[in-house]
Amino acid sequence: MKYYFDGCSYTKGHDQASSKVSWPKQINPKSDPNYGYVNALDDDQNFRLYPFIDNSCTARSNDAIFLSFMSHLDEIIANKTKVFLYFSHSERYFIRLNNSENKNIKPLNSRLIYNKANPDGRDITEWISGTMKTISYIKSITHIAEINDIDLVIVTQDHYRWLEFVSKTEQSLEECFNSINTKYIFNWPLPELKNFSLFNNYPNTDYKQILELWGCTGFALQMAKGFSDFNEWVSDDLKHFTEKGHAWLAKVLVEFLKDRSKNLSYYIDELDLGKQRIFYDKNAWVESYFYGKETSHWIEKELISHFNSLIKDIEKNKNYIYEG
Q1: Residue 99: how many CB atoms within 10 A of its CB?
Q2: What is the pLDDT of residues 17-54, one digit of tens each?
Q3: Which of 3, 68, 134, 137 is the most buried (most CB within 10 A)?
Q4: CA-only gyration radius of the chain, Å
């Protein structure tokens, strides 16, 4: 087994077209397009028809990613497999197993049923608890990689500074977070976040503060907005990658595996200041969001509405100052 991939729709692809050109397929193109690059069953009912495993699927959760990695660990070590894990939104989790599916026909990752606790203005404790779990999964996997010399690359959808913030809930958790070997994590560390009021107001937060942090600090859109021109890397739902976005991510993750100094910060440093601000400053999003575009994703709809109102307030203040 040469490669092991796992993640959610940012890895699998969010629709049929993107699933054929997603970044794992570009890293490891050895597969049969008739099966859509999925590990199909062979005559012996084995899923590894090709020299890789791709467990990614839409809405996949981090506890499922951890479970599958541990289930394949002995095989990964024995085969010196290169491992690429894209950790999803931390508020997701799997809740049960679909026992109606025959385990000889569908693998475990295809039989898990997922749920998510989208943070709102009333309660973000489930998002926080999910983030705590993500920290523990990453600590465990990176520690295992160090001991067993595993070629490992991790990407986190949740921002480094959000994970750091949650880790301060408890001293032992903060020590756990600080002890993680970041050489395995492509988008760690990142600059301090700026103009996100949730950090100063917590635990007295409101929905707008949560929406801004949750919607504007995720890796996928930060990458797509920060590195592409005219949003060429952002799909029509204004949330996922286009083929160009997947291609860039495939290239830099392979390069990161060869040279650990070429993490996300390496590429951010090459950007002009306006683009760099996308990765840490809320105001950069207010100034350059996808205005005038329709989107099918509810998060992006709410962000566009929220930021449009902020723009109007800014314009009003400018006019008031000018007229005064």
Answers
A1: 8
A2: 888 889 998 888 655 444 434 444 445 544 444 567 88
A3: 134
A4: 20
DSSP string, 52-119: EEE---TT--HHHHHHHHHHTHHHHHHHT-EEEEEE--TTEEEEEE-TTS-TTTS-GGGTEEEEE---
Closest CA to 177 of 133, 216, 210, 215: 133
Dihedral (CA of 11, 97, 71, 75) sign: negative
- pLDDT for 158 beyond 80: yes
Q: Are strands 92-97 and 112-116 parallel, antiparallel or unpaired?
A: antiparallel
**Maximal C-alpha separation, the chain:** 80
Tokens 């490891």, residue? 28
Amino acid symbol at 258: K
Q: Which helix (H) or strand (E) holds 192?
A: none
State the CB neighbour count (10 A cutoff) for residue 51: 13
Which residues are bridge partners to 61 per DSSP?
none
Whether the Cβ atoms of residue 277 and residue 284 lie closer than 8 Å to each other: yes
Cα separation, 229 vs 249, whole angstroms: 15
| C-alpha to C-alpha distance for 1 and 35, rounded to whole angstroms | 19
